[in-house]
Amino acid sequence: MSAKVSKNFYDWEFVPPEIYHNKRLKNQWFISKFMIDFAQLLRERFAKPVFINTYLLTKSSVLTNGYENSGFRSASTKTGAKLSQHKFKCAIDAKISDIDPEEIRGDIRNNFAIYKAVGLTTIEKDTPTWVHGDCRHTGMNTLYEVKYK
Fold first, then answer.
1. pLDDT of 115-138, one tens digit each?
2. Strands 91-96 and 131-134
3. pLDDT, tens digit (0-9, with 9 covering 90-100), for 55-66
4. Which of 12, 93, 106, 131 is the most exposed place for a label (fewest CB within 10 A)?
């Protein structure tokens, strides 16, 4: 059963189906405050729905892929790097309909203090259809940008 975790998000949006459908596990065990706060901040700044995982959406005309690994990723997934920040509850990949990911990254760069306040430290450059944001410890006061792939 899903639970609302913020004004605009439910817990299932941050966990893969194998966590959501496992009745012995609680979705909240696999979600960090950063993941929720960063997604909610994007929703408020762009005033449009933000998509993380979409596998439970049945009428999404915007996203046809049914994303499953854009929030927490289990150790068994083949998606992403072996030590991806997603596996530590430290990252999300966000998609916003009709907004180019570079526009979102530009907003993050130009308003980093706002994003830093929710814990964002790092983004990936040049992701084609999503914005990766994470809260890894960088020891920096500026935005850390890592190469995609």
1. 999 999 999 999 999 999 999 999
2. antiparallel
3. 888 555 454 567
4. 106
